[in-house]
Amino acid sequence: xxxxxxxxxxxxxxxxxxxxxxxxxxxxxxxxxxxxxxxxxxxxxxxxxxxxxxxxxxxxxxxxxxxxxxxxxxxxxxxxxxxxxxxxxxxxxxxxxxxxxxxxxxxxxxxxxxxxxxxxxxxxxxxxxxxxxxxxxxxxxxxxxxxxxxxxxxxxxxxxxxxxxxxxxxxxxxxxxxxxxxxxxxxxxxxxxxxxxxxxxxxxxxxxxxxxxxxxxxxxxxxxxxxxxxxxxxxxxxxxxxxxxxxxxxxxxxxxxxxxxxxxxxxxxxxxxxxxxxxxxxxxxxxxxxxxxxxxxxxxxxxxxxxxxxxx
Length: 312
Ligand code: NAP
What we know:
Elements: H1 3-28, E1 35-36, H2 39-59, E2 65-71, H3 75-91, E3 94-100, H4 106-118, E4 124-127, H5 137-143, H6 155-162, H7 171-182, E5 191-195, H8 202-211, E6 215-219, H9 226-230, E7 235-238, E8 256-259, E9 263-264, E10 270-271, H10 276-280, E11 285-286, H11 293-311
The chain binds NADP nicotinamide-adenine-dinucleotide phosphate (NAP).
NADP nicotinamide-adenine-dinucleotide phosphate (NAP) is lined by residues 172, 195-198, 200-202, 219-222, 239-242, 260-263, 293-294, 297.
C-alpha cells in the first residue's frame, strides 16, 4: 500500500469517527461539548499530502520555490516570515527571503517584486503585510504576477474568485473551507453567517461558502442585531478581531463555529472572537484559538505555492 493510500485510509477513519460523534451529539442533546476542530493536526495532514506532491515535482526536475518579502523589522512580521520559512522547509519547498529596510522607497519595493516576477525559478511570491506606512500596499500587491500570487490577494485572483473562475484562493478563508470539509460539516443548503467583510477574510469567505452552496449572510460593524442572524446559522465564521464577541447564546445548537479572530489580551494570552466555553457547550463543532484556523493559513499558503509550481 502506498503512503498516500495509507494516509487516505487514516483520514477516512478519522472522518467516520467524527461523524459518529456528531450523531451522538444530535441524539443526546446539547450537554456534550462540541467537536473540537483541530487545525494543527489538519494542517499537518495537508503538509504530509503536499510532501508527496513536492516529491513528484522534484522527480520531474522542478523545485517548488516560494519567495517571502519583508520590508522593515516589525517583530510580529519577523515571526510570521520565520514560520513561513520553516513550513517551506518542512514540506520541501525552497524558501527565498527578501529583506528590505524600513525606509525602502516605493520604487525599491516594486523593483524587488518585479525581479521576483521575472525569476523563473520562483513559483510563488508573498509580500508580508503590513508594509511600512509610507508604502502603498495596494500598488505593491498589484505588481505581483497573478500566477505567482501565493496569498491570493491580487485583484485578478479576487476577480476570478468572485466570477466563479479557477484562481489562487486567499489562504485563511480557503483554510476554513478545508476544515469544514475535512470534518464533514455539511455546507450545501445550510445557512452560513460570516462576521466581518474585509477583502482578505470576510468577503472571500462569503464567496467560498456560496461556492459550496451555502446561503450566506455577511455581518459587519453596521449590522443591527447580529445575534438575530447568528441564531439562524448552521455555520458561523467570525473574522472581526474582537475577543469574546461571539457567545453561546448567539448560536443555534449544533452549529459549526469557525473562529478566525486573533486577539492578544493584556495578560498576553491569545484568544479568538468566540467565548470558547459558552460556544463550545452549544455548538456542534468549534475551532480553538490558537490551534484552529491559524495553522491552516500557512498550510494553504504552502498548497498555493505547490499549485503554482505544478502549473509550470
Ligand atoms: P479587518 O480588516 O480589521 O476587518 C474586520 C471586520 O470586522 C470589518 O469588516 C469590520 O466591520 C468588522 N467588525 C469589527 N468590529 C465589529 C463588531 N463589533 N461587530 C461586527 N463587525 C465588526 O480584519 P481582518 O484582516 O479581516 O481580520 C479579522 C480577524 O481575523 C483579526 O482578528 C485578525 O487578526 C484575524 N486573522 C486571522 C488570520 C489567521 O490566520 N487565523 C488571518 C487573517 C486575519 P466594518 O467593515 O464595518 O468596519
